[in-house]
Specification:
There is one protein chain. With about 200 residues, the chain is an all-beta fold. It has strands at about 5, 10, 15, 20, 25-30, 35, 40, 45, 50, 55-60, 65, 70, 75, 80, 110, 115, 120, 125-130, 135, 140, 150, 155-160, 170, 175, 185, 190-195. Strand 23 and strand 24 (about 175) form a beta hairpin. The relative contact order is 0.09.
């Protein structure tokens, strides 16, 4: 069974996985699908049709606009924004208020295990790779590779990180996680795990 706090607004058309918790003032819209053991913090927004894998955490006041897709174990920090409009305007060129039929939403896709730091903005359409980390306050305007640590405005890769989220250290031709000992190989600005 899922837990929905008093004061949360969860559509009856949303699908909430077992063990998930939706906290006070959060809103989960129609046709959103949350996996098992997800947490949606106070005041967070999960848009219509958003897809979240198991064990995701969406912290307080984060805005996850449709059609975002989050893999398994994704962390969305406080006040993060995942946008969905490439060319936002309130009105059409002739001055009329835009309706849902006047634009096509585009989404942010986030791979398994990735983390988006507090107040970061991901400008759709972008893909954040598996186990990547977006630093707090970053503005992501292009795709982020697996295991990349990106920071800044616009965000750029500054390090590699492993599954523990700890920056990797160079040892010969490999990158090694000081926390887990896992090894990675860099090829053409991409990082892959070394089979152990």
């Amino acid at each position: 069974m899922a837990f929905v706090a008093p004061g949360a607004d969860v559509s009856s058309d949303a699908s909430i996985g077992d063990g998930s918790k939706i906290w006070h003032l959060a809103q989960v819209r129609e046709e959103a699908v949350l996996g098992e053991n997800c947490i949606v913090g106070r005041g967070a927004y999960i848009g219509t049709g958003v897809r979240m894998g198991d064990n995701c955490k969406v912290q307080n006041y984060a805005l996850v606009y449709e059609p975002a897709v989050l893999g398994t174990g994704v962390f969305i920090g406080p006040a993060v924004v995942l946008t969905n409009d490439t060319y936002p305007r309130a009105i059409t060129p002739d001055g009329e208020l835009k309706s849902a039929h006047d634009w096509t939403p585009v989404g942010v896709t986030i791979g398994d295990g990735a983390s988006i730091g507090a107040r970061a903005v991901c400008v759709a359409p972008v893909t954040i790779g598996r186990w990547a980390t977006v630093a707090a306050g970053a503005v992501v305007t292009k795709d982020v590779p697996d295991f990349a640590l990106v920071a800044g405005v616009p965000a750029r890769r500054i390090r590699w990180v492993g599954k523990a989220g700890v920056p990797l250290e160079r040892e010969g031709d490999l990158w090694v996680c000081p926390s887990t000992g896992e090894q990675y190989r860099e090829t053409n600005d991409e990082l892959t795990e070394v089979n152990q």
